[in-house]
Amino acid sequence: MSTDRIVSWHPDPSAPRYAPPPGAVDAHCHVFGPADRFPFSPKAKYLPADAGPEMLFGLRDHLGFARNVIVQASCHGTDNAATLNAIAVSNGRARGVAVVDPAITDAELEALHAGGIRGVRFNFLKRLVDDAPKDKFLEVARRIQPLGWHVVIYFEADILDELRPFLDAIPTLIVVDHMGRPDVTQGPDGADMRAFRALLDTREDIWFKATCPDRLDPAGPPWEAFAAAVAPLVADYPDRVLWGTDWPHPNMQDRVPDDGALVDIIPRIAPTPELQQAMLVDNPMRLYWAD
Quick check: helix, strand or coil at residue 92? Predict the structure, then answer.
């Protein structure tokens, strides 16, 4: 492995104290490579060390989960081969979210569906992607509708207002990555969380991932601000929330989180068995394993 490839995951994550319910789904994770089989995109903004399906599924078992939803990582661009490979070797225990070139053919979309893809991701983080053409994204969203897919969208809180017309025009169910990255230090009633709630209230088919305290809470573990800001959101929208580890934590090499500690935040944002069952089992199964 060349010295310029980064490691962003914990080498020995702790065993969580919290035990997820049977059938729990890690609904947001990634794979990197292995690069000798699945090269990174020439446009990749980061070059990670290999973090393939064997590592991911070993972590899944260590943390007490049953399934994974593998989201195409930006370092692989629109070549979904690494994600498809991980799904193929999962024994039916993984599904995926792709990133596609807007020029993709219907036959290629159908092949992705056969390979376990159930959504497409649109990324609006300028540090990760050079171009985010809203008109072409909307055309893709219309074309995936017959497949029963949804749109996963990644953006930061400061562009939510300008994205609202685009979001309103998406004809499929929408899942917002990491709640649109609100400033959790503002608290549950802060401006960012109020704006995100206002978005959720515009449509019943906008879901979110209550994920990434390691990215969103600058104070670090035990991520008190994250827990305080996110728990009311989970309680108020229990049928629209997903959870995931975000392993192998792209670009977090300077603040690598302990995955066991990430799992232990679950009962702090979803304190009842009913909320945990919805967030970790019922909701992701409805979205990714309906067929």
Answer: coil
Known active-site residue 246:
yes
- Name the DSSP letter for residue 48: B
Provide long-range contacts, Cβ within 8 A and 24+ apart, for 13-16: 13/59, 13/62, 13/63, 13/258, 13/259, 13/260, 14/258, 14/259, 14/260, 14/261, 15/62, 15/260, 16/63, 16/64, 16/260, 16/261, 16/263, 16/264
Give the model confidence (pLDDT) of 156-210 as tens digits: 999 999 999 999 999 999 999 999 999 999 999 999 999 999 999 999 999 999 9
pLDDT single digits (tens) 95-137: 999 999 999 999 999 999 999 999 999 998 865 555 567 999 9
Written as six digits, the tokens of 171 are 């004809």
CA distances from 175 to 1, 55, 85, 206, 259 (A): 35, 26, 23, 6, 23
Q: Which residue among 50, 214, 246, 259 is the active-site one? A: 246
Q: How far apart are alpha carbons 99 and 74 in whole angstroms?
A: 8
* Of residues 238, 239, 206, 243, the one with CA closest to residue 226: 243
Instruction: Write out the H or E segment, with its range, that includes residue 154.
Output: strand 150-154
Other C-beta atoms lying within 10 Å of the C-beta of residue 143: 17
